[in-house]
Amino acid sequence: MKNSIEAVIFDMDGLMLDTERISQMAWQKAGTDLNIELPISLSRQVIGLVMSDIKVLFKDRLGADFPLDRFLKRANKHYHRMLREEPVPVKPGVFDLLDYLEEWDIPTGVATSTGKKLARQKLSSAGLLDRFRFIVAGDEVEKGKPEPEIFLRVAELLSVAPAKCLVLEDSEMGIRGAHAAGMTVYMIPDLIEPTDAIRHLAHGIFESLQVLLEQFRGGGPDGPDFMFPPVTAVEDSPI
After folding, report:
1. Which of 27, 41, 111, 165 is 20 to 30 A from 53 via CA?
2. Position 158 in a domain
3. CB 176 within 8 A of CB 168
4. Residue range 130-187, pLDDT digits in tens
5. Do residues 141 and 212 share a domain?
6. pLDDT tens across 195-233, in order?
7. Contacts from 177-180 at CB under 8 Å and sequence distance 24+?
8. pTM score, two decimals?
9. Which value, in Å, is the radius of gyration of the alpha carbons in the chain?
């Protein structure tokens, strides 16, 4: 193998599952139900956050009078209804990428801000639950992303040093958390394009998991090539 990466840690929503769009629709529908105009910029800010941090953000931005409990209950109802109505959408390249990593005996885990029960439910529905050795969820850590705790927990369970872990993320919060954990991190953007700051934290930015897989395959018989391609390289990165 061409490098020292020994494990790959996956985010879930927005990275493997195309569910962030469903979340955004649920937020907006809840706002409509309660005759509240929810700024799209605010609903985008919650991406990658655990629920406790989402509540803090909403209270800070919308004030103490905002009917937070009623709003979250409505949003949760819409979200689960939409998940029941259609199969959980899986991002292109997920299964092929997991197959490839399995061929090279590279262990994988999941670090998701979603609660454990719902995370397992969604991964099971998508046919992905049994593809990972360990799953650490947002309700299993004291501090969620962008803190590094969740990534360090997965690395510990996989018995791999943080410096030898590669994290795949779509959100700014996840990129910051993985970077703080001392791990290599690649970004596959979903709803939010990377800012200049994130471009300097991510070791590589890829259009899709399928594109990332092709990069790995470029390593040929020596194993995955974990170097990011020149077209997405971050010049003058401080890392």
Report:
1. 165
2. yes
3. no
4. 999 999 999 999 999 999 999 999 999 999 999 999 999 999 999 999 999 999 999 9
5. yes
6. 898 999 999 999 999 999 999 998 888 888 876 443 343
7. 177/145, 177/146, 177/147, 177/148, 177/150, 177/151, 178/9, 178/148, 178/151, 179/239, 180/146, 180/147, 180/148
8. 0.82
9. 18
